[in-house]
Amino acid sequence: MSLLELKNVSKIYGELKALDNINIHVDKGEWVAIMGPSGSGKSTMMNIIGCMDKPTVGEVLLDGVDISKESSKNLTDIRRDKIGLVFQQFHMVGYLTAVENVMVSQYYHSMPDEEEALEALGRVGLRERAKHLPSQLSGGEQQRVCVARALINHPELILADEPTGNLDEANENIVLDLFRQLHDEGTTLIVVTHDPEVAEAAQRTIVLEHGRVAREVINENFGK
Amino acid sequence: MTKRKMFLRMITASLLRRRSRMLIALLSIAIGATILSGLVTIYYDVPRQMGAQFRSYGANMILLPEDGGALTQASMDRALSAVPAENLVGATPYRYVRLDMTSRQQSFTTAGTVFAEVQKTSPYFSVEGEYPQGSKEILVGKEIADTIGVKAGSYIQLTYRPSVTVHENASDDWVPGASLSGSAEGFNAGIVVVEATLDEDAKIASITVDASSQTEEIGGQVATDRNFLARFIGQSLPLTLGEDVDAVSGATVSSQAVVDALNNSRSADSGTTVTEQSGYFNVTGILVTGGEEESYIFMSLEDLEKLTRDDSLDVAELSISANADQLDGYAAAINESGEGVTAKLVKRVTRSETAVLGKLQALVFLVTVVVLLLTTICVSTTMMAVVSERRREIGLRKALGAPDSSIRAEFLGEGMFLGGLGGLLGAALGFVFAQVVSVNVFGSSITFQPLLLPITLVVSMLIAAVSCLLPIKRAVAIDPALVLKGE
């Protein structure tokens, strides 16, 4: 059963076709990597899937709802309810502690619950660092907090933009292990990446070139 | 944890953990609030302060006897019932009489008054020494003190002599066998008193002259020169000097006084003779005013009444705490009270008081508005900087699903918190500011207006909120996608 479906999606900026007639579908519980060189349309696609932008043409079905025509207010609601975001630059609120950063996500979603936020931090191995400010955490630790924040509201879809781009190998492995756990629990994962190793961790890789889907690769080694 | 608790936790964290930026906003609000509460305090205190200042220049209303009426302490008190007691700063009665200073043979204008009231209606009076406390104590004007050489602690003798009055029908008393008594002004304003008896033909039978006020070796001879006095015996009144009698050589003025005194004389039996009164007075202080008061002697009304056997008043000076319109109303009420008393405003003072007050208040108001405007701009600029500084954070919050209303609430919350804190600081500092200004400019302290605290708080929060409007608009417009672009 598909969670996400892009039908004939194009995004046009003046002369430039950032996305050119894209057709993609992602099943519930699937782990998909999106690769491609700079300017291939990865970010544009990410924005559209993340409910932060709308396509010029085409339909985007998220959990059966066409989000291509929704108002930005409704898009905010959908993003909050269904999607967990992980960014390349970590993006934490600088003046809030690790646990407070996780609670911000709860705050906008439903109700802040410090116990639950601490459990989520425990899951990414940072329960001891809960009271630390971002400036007191390493890059890898910050990204793990961001993963905890992304999963706290049990989203249908976790959308990660170059999640390991700024991490060393040890931290990259920790984050990928977290993704594996999430996948095993049935969470759908879409990971945008340059890194072939990260792409290989996914079940399937979609490669974009010049705003089009160049090819799709099934990772035969997945789960082995 | 409730959403509200998390909201407060985020706001306090934002304020506490980003101190330097927030301090600037807090400081500008606090300064604005300080000026606001300070100036408002002064604005409301200025009338009181200025009123006191103006009243220190003297009375702003005087009471005079109406034509044909008489002013007394009693009629003055009755007339003053038209003025509310709390507005009446002071009411000083005055009676002016000329008294002779016996040892110097000089006479001075002496004012009978109530010293406790003088200090209220003429606060600018400066006394070297002390104000009189008991009876037989006087203040001497500096000019007189310099002339006659007295200082605080001196004793002087003052004498009241009834003023010379010409009786139109004095001749009615010049009947056979009458005992006559009369007085007239002689040399150097000294009074010459003459007593005479008439024989059965209404001609002068005997004459006694008291010329002790005249220069002893010259004018004084009119009392002792037997040839001069002998010329009066057997004469009929009235007399003319040079025709009926010749003047004592070199004492024409004193001789004329004797003739005048006889022509003024009335029968001792008719009971109009007033004998002179005299007393010793202790000078407790020298009065320095820089004005005409320096040529007066001041004593209590009681003492003056004992000397003169008269309790009438010439004028009363009033100091009333009121604006020009109210004063007009009080004056009209007194004039209509039917006490035989006329009230007049000392217009110069009351008019200028009202005019200066109006201008001063307008100025303070203008400055307050400008300061509030500047504060708004300053806080707005700071909040604008805060927003651009936190673009990524705002983008992140929106990416995490924050609705616009939430972003608005967070910034408004921070702004209001700053406004409240700044207002609190400002209210306290403003009172200190107003106190300093008041002490330095007006020389008196002010009382704290409790109402000013909530007013300052509300205005500060309002200004903070208004200052946040534009920055919030910017914040809401931030695109959440920017957090993905690796900015």
- Main β sheet profile of chain A: 6 strands, mixed
Number of domain units of chain B: 3
Q: Would you state the CATH class of chain A?
A: Alpha Beta
Question: Which secondary-structure class do the elements of chain A indicate?
Answer: alpha/beta
Can you give the helix content of chain B as a percent range?
40-55%
Biggest chain contact? A-B, 38 and 32 residues
Q: Determine Rg of chain B (CA atoms, Å).
A: 40 Å
CA gyration radius of chain A, whole angstroms: 17 Å
| Sheet with most strands of chain B | 6 strands, mixed, barrel
Order of helices and strands of chain B: HHEEHEEHEEHEEEEHHEEEHEEHEHHHH
| Helical residues, percent of chain A | 25-40%
Integer count of domains of chain A: 1
Please state how the strands of the largest beta sheet of chain B are arranged side by side. Answer: 3-4-13-6-12-7
Q: So what's the overall shape of chain A? A: globular
CATH architecture of chain A: 3-Layer(aba) Sandwich
Q: What is the CATH superfamily of chain A?
A: P-loop containing nucleotide triphosphate hydrolases
C-alpha end-to-end distance of chain B: 33 Å
Report what the structure shows.
The complex is a heterodimer of chains A (224) and B (487). Helix content of chain A is 33%, strand content 29%. Chain A has seven helices and ten strands. In chain A, the strands form two sheets. Chain A has a six-stranded mixed β-sheet with strand order 6-7-8-3-9-10, sandwiched between helices. In chain A, helix 3 runs parallel beside helix 5 and helix 5 (139-151) runs parallel beside helix 6. The mean pLDDT of chain A is 89. Chain B is rod-shaped. In chain B, 47% of the residues lie in helices and 20% in strands. Chain B folds into three domains: 3-53 and 352-484, no CATH class; 61-161 and 277-344, no CATH class; 170-270. The model of chain B is unreliable at 164-168 (pLDDT under 50). In chain B, strand 9 and strand 10 form a beta hairpin. Classes of the chains: A alpha/beta (224), B alpha+beta (487). Chains A and B meet through helix 1, helix 2 and helix 3 of A and helix 1 and helix 11 of B.
